[in-house]
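Lecture notes, unit on protein representations.

Consider one protein chain, 263 amino acids long.
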Amino acid sequence: MEYPLLYYKNNLVGMLNLLEVMENHGCYHLVFSSSCTVYGEPNQLPITEEHSIGGNITNVYGKTKYFIEEMLADISHANEKWNIIALRYFNPVGAHPSGLIGEDPTKAFTNIMPFIAQVAIGHKPVLTIFGGDYNTVDGTGVRDYIHVMDLATGHVAALRKLRKQHQRLKAYNLGTGQGVSVLQLVKAFEKVTGTAIPYKIIERREGDITAMFANAELAHQDLGWKAQHTLEEMCTDFWRWQTMNPHGYRAQKEIKMTNGHGH
C-alpha cells in the first residue's frame, strides 16, 4: 500500500512482457501465480472459485493479481491456443523440509512467519500484530496458511492438467480450508519450537481483511490435489530453515566469498 507503483510495474509490466515473449515463441501453456486477494473482502466462507473477483479488493497487491487475471481472460478469449491455469494461493508458509530452502525477506515489510521466526531466534525484540479488534475468535485476522511444499505439488498437478486438457483459462484455489488466526499461529509456533514469542497488538493495517479461507474442492476434483501438511509441520519446517540459516542466504554468500579468498 506504501509503494503501489513498485507492485504495478513488477506484476503488470512484467506479465505483459512475458506474455508477448511467450506468444512470439509459440508457447501458450501458463500456470499463473494468482492470489486469494482477488476475492477482496469475502461475502461467504469458505470461499469457492464461483465467488466474484475484483469487486471489493482492499490492497494494491490484490488489484495487480486481479488485473492480470482479466488480462489472461482477454488473451485466452482472443486466441484459442492459450491454455492457462490461475492458481489462487492462500497464505504460503513453511520451508523445504531439508532446511536448505526457505524464505529470507530482503525488505522491511515481510510475511508473518519469517517475522515470528526472527523474534523466536532473537533477531527482533517483539512481533507486531496489526489489529486485535476483528470479528474473529480472538480479535486477530484469520487466514488459510498452506505449506509451501503443498503449493509446489499444486503447480505440478496444474502442469499435468494443462498437458492433458485444453481449457483456455481456469482458476483454482490452493488452500487447506482451515482458518487460523494470527494468535493461533503464534501459539502453534511456540509449541513446536519451544520458544516464547513476545508480541504487541497495534492498530489495523491498511488493506487487510478480517478473515479468508479456502474451499479447495475444485482443485481436488480436477487436479487430484489436496493439501497434506499440518500447521505444526509448517512451523517445524520453517524453524528448521531459520535455525540452520540464522542470517538467511546473505551470510552463506559471505562465508562462501571468504572461503574463496582463502584458496
